Hints:
Blueprint: E1 8-12, E2 17-25, E3 32-38, E4 45-49, H1 50-53, E5 56-59, E6 62-65, E7 67-72
Antiparallel strand pairs: 1-2, 1-7, 2-3, 3-4, 5-6
Amino acid sequence: MSDVIRTGKYRHFKGNEYQVIGTARHSETMELMVVYRALYGDYGLWVRPASMWNETVTRDGKTFQRFTLIEEDS
């Protein structure tokens, strides 16, 4: 799996969609973070460690990508 996180629209394995705005570094740890916005509800702005963004999740015996790119920004 690639460590590159492209800007664009992603679907979370639970079904909601998010827009990745870009990446940033945590000011204390230098950990790479993903900056993204929910595309539902109050359209909140969030950050998540890139390592978590790219990981797989197992639920009910099935394995999923936590986030799947569905539309890359041009």
